[in-house]
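Translate structure to sequence.
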């Protein structure tokens, strides 16, 4: 299979055109066609010679994301289920905010982290996406927004999968997204979320970027976190916190802690106080997420009174805490739900 043109950042394209006897500026033209003009074929790159277009067509492919399903929520959220070249499927979400349009991208087909409240891990990990397959999700979202004269203003890497287990592809994707000659997304408008892959938190801290880091914490201690997130047995709570301290020391950037509130499991006053005790000496923001109901899981949503009480305790301890505004609640919004439904239908069809 030919490599995807979206897998190549501008430096890699410049190296490729040089190796193929072309002038260096041709790479910039190609990059412009891909990300500014957003063409879907090499034949459309009309300021390139026919021989160069043929060479590109012979050596590269565009990522094909086949739209299997698209749902639009009452709040404007759009969720896609895209089919890949190998019959796997991934989800991508466009979220409308008063400050612009955000795209949530997926980095893996499935997930092996095993969080017990998450639909993404149902069926396990199938494979990593290439950088180009991650890039293509944003390009497709931007093409949709082009029809209304709008643009992607921010990106969250919070879809299915663990981006720090697909680290190199994720970093290539990020470098393509922030390049001023491409989509030119501001670094501070991009957030990457990890479940706590400690070695790559240290590595990311040393990348010298302004990209935001969010940590899926979901519990205030080692025992409960291991119950909810099996990855905690590999990278214990204290090791995760130490790596985040290193990140702050290196970057000076505030960390976001994502905390999914699960009724009767991790949402009580004692959990809030314990979390506050861990974070109150650190520059942290806590994003409280009322857990989405997943039919395959037995967890229930936290009551409104417990949500606000949890937030109050954090705030009283000097910790900035917000409750995530729910979007796409009416269109299977939880990560992995749409793909899980698609997989189930496929299994039922195969069984007939």
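Result:
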């Amino acid at each position: 299979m030919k490599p995807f043109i979206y897998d190549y950042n501008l430096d890699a394209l410049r190296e490729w055109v040089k190796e193929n006897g072309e002038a260096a500026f041709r790479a910039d033209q190609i990059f412009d066609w891909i990300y500014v003009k957003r063409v879907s074929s090499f034949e459309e790159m009309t300021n390139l010679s026919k021989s160069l277009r043929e060479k590109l067509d012979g050596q590269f492919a565009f990522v094909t994301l086949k739209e299997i399903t698209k749902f639009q929520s009452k709040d404007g959220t759009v969720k896609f289920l895209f089919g890949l070249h190998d019959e796997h499927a991934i989800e991508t979400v466009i979220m409308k905010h008063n400050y612009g349009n955000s795209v949530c991208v997926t980095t893996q087909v499935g997930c092996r982290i095993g969080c017990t409240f998450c639909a993404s891990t149902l069926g396990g990990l199938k494979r990593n996406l290439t950088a180009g397959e991650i890039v293509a999700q944003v390009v497709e979202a931007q093409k949709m927004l082009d029809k209304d004269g709008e643009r992607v203003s921010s990106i969250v890497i919070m879809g299915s999968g663990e981006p720090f287990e697909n680290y190199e592809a994720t970093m290539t994707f990020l470098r393509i997204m922030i390049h001023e000659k491409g989509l030119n997304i501001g670094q501070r408008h991009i957030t990457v979320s990890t479940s706590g892959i400690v070695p790559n938190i240290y590595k990311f801290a040393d990348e010298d970027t302004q990209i935001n880091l969010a940590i899926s914490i979901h519990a205030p201690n080692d025992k409960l976190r291991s119950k909810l997130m099996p990855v905690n047995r590999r990278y214990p709570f204290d090791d995760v916190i130490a790596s985040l301290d290193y990140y702050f020391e290196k970057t000076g950037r505030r960390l976001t802690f994502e905390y999914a509130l699960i009724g009767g499991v991790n949402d009580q006053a004692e959990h809030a106080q314990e979390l506050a005790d861990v974070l109150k000496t650190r520059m942290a923001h806590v994003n409280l997420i009322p857990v989405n109901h997943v039919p395959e899981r037995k967890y229930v949503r936290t009551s409104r009174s417990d949500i606000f009480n949890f937030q109050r305790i954090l705030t009283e301890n000097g910790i900035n805490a917000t409750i995530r505004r729910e979007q796409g609640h009416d269109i299977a919004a939880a990560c992995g739900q749409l793909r899980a439904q698609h997989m189930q239908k496929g299994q039922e069809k195969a069984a007939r």
